[in-house]
Structures are given as structure tokens and as C-alpha cells.
Amino acid sequence: MLTDPICKLPPSLVEAFNAWKAGARARVISLILETRPGDLANISDECHQVQTLDAGEVAIGRVLAV
Questions:
Q1: Distance between CA 57 and CA 41 in Å, rounded?
Q2: How far apart are the C-alpha atoms of 64 and 51, rounded to whole Å?
Q3: From CA 45, how far away is CA 16, in angstroms rounded?
Q4: Which residues pair with 47 in a beta bridge?
């Protein structure tokens, strides 16, 4: 996920999404632009705060394998 986390996730959505994620054996790695993860921390396996989408950012290289 790549976002500016300006969203509110209701507890029922978090629960349903995390149940799906576990059943699908999926992982969510979020790149958060210039702010804190907010509610995305509740559904993400990893949250990386970045200032830019520059390939030089450690998190960008790790998540996107560039």
C-alpha cells in the first residue's frame, strides 16, 4: 500500500480485512508519505514512513526491490 493514510478504518473493517489476510496468507507492507501510519498500522504487517518516493529511500528499495 502506498498512501498518505488520511483514512479511518472502522473496527469491523479491520477485523474482516485481517481475517481475509490471514486466510489468504497475504502480507501488507505500507509506505506512508510524510506522516504517521494512523489506522493503517492496524492492517499492515510493516509500516515504513518515507519523505519521498526516491529510490534512495531505504524503505523504497526494500519494499519495491529497486
A1: 20
A2: 16
A3: 15
A4: 30
User: C-alpha grid cell for residue 15?
Assistant: 477485523
CA distances from 14 to 26, 50, 65 (A): 14, 23, 28
pLDDT digits (tens, 9 = 90+) for 22-59: 999 999 988 888 788 889 999 999 988 887 777 777 77
Q: Whole-angstrom Cα distance, residue 25 to residue 21? A: 6
Please tell me the total number of residues recorded for the chain in this structure: 66
pLDDT of residue 55: 72
DSSP output for 1-64: -EE-------HHHHHHHHHHHHHHT---EEEEESS--GGGGGT-SEEEEES---TTSHHHHHHH
